[in-house]
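Colleagues,

Please find the record for the three-part complex below.
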Amino acid sequence: MWLQRRIDLAARPRGFHLVTAEVVAALPELGALRVGLLHLLLAHTSASLALNEDASPAVRVDFERWLDAAVPEQAQFWTHRLEGSDDMPAHVKASLLGQSLTLPIADGRLALGTWQGIYLCEHRNHGGTRSLLATAWGESGGSEGD
Amino acid sequence: MWLQRRIDLAARPRGFHLVTAEVVAALPELGALRVGLLHLLLAHTSASLALNEDASPAVRVDFERWLDAAVPEQAQFWTHRLEGSDDMPAHVKASLLGQSLTLPIADGRLALGTWQGIYLCEHRNHGGTRSLLATAWGESGGSEGD
Amino acid sequence: MWLQRRIDLAARPRGFHLVTAEVVAALPELGALRVGLLHLLLAHTSASLALNEDASPAVRVDFERWLDAAVPEQAQFWTHRLEGSDDMPAHVKASLLGQSLTLPIADGRLALGTWQGIYLCEHRNHGGTRSLLATAWGESGGSEGD
């Protein structure tokens, strides 16, 4: 079974945002997969996807704080400044965290760790709507009798 | 062919550890895949997986040294401090390196580069046992006569 | 359908290089996939793959500048110095960006975002030829009537 679908994520402020529930809700067909995988590609170069702690909002605040310190907007070495001081750092942040995730599916559900959630990491001040291309594949199959 | 199996990795000290042999030994069925892929998800948010040099132990020492300098435990900006000074940096390190790997299989073997090995990157002082969910898929098939 | 092929990328200077066209040209069979994925593994530990802005060359310059500042060759903490001052930083940079990409295919084409291109990130001063192992899989199928 193959499924491919574009999912548009509403615009969010700069920072880290949990989107697990929104992604899963857009893909009800995952329930038919006994075993498989879900691939997500964020079709942008200044935002990223990550998998991390989904319980404490402070963790998401600190991700933003660390990234802002590690990839400083005011560094003298940037040459690509045309699109604003948040633009080039956003490109670097996007590739540090990555724009895609591949996640296992077991018995019709995303098989993540207990504390793992999908983060949309918005690195621009005004990033706007972000598009995901979701591709799922695997073996469908009834779990007979249980 | 699809295979999905949980692999429990024994607790290791903070640092970088080669686990290629341990992962392969837990998945003897890979030998039947003529062409395919292996996906590994580490089901945690404070440890990670990486692919890097498997020969010199000094490389693994230096990974730890660089990460400790780049994501300092004593930075003033951390707000998530409840679980110890090694916790929030461990979350950041985990997403920098990533918690999953997708690796090609050719003729029944992991098709890595000559020097590539799978690292378990333990970012907590006392991380305990770590669980991997391994998913493999591909085409089985005999290589007749050669 | 499964396809697996080694692609040798010509030696390039240290820095970031767009290789999207070169990779696609080496894989004409992708045109037969209605839906699928392409996995690329760079079989090295001192170079990496990334997905980022393919329009402005200044973006690629700034990636190199940021990485050189973030992973300094002259840091006192490196212990692995035998292979030159660019070697250990190259290992770290390789795992920060990652040595593999998984990319969706739709209607016979790589389904990347408008501005996304594949970067070969060469972290050594003289890295030489770099090998990719490309694995593609998916559903072939005619688009009847359109």
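Helices of chain A lie at 20-25, 57-70, 87-97.

Comments are welcome before we finalize the supplementary table.
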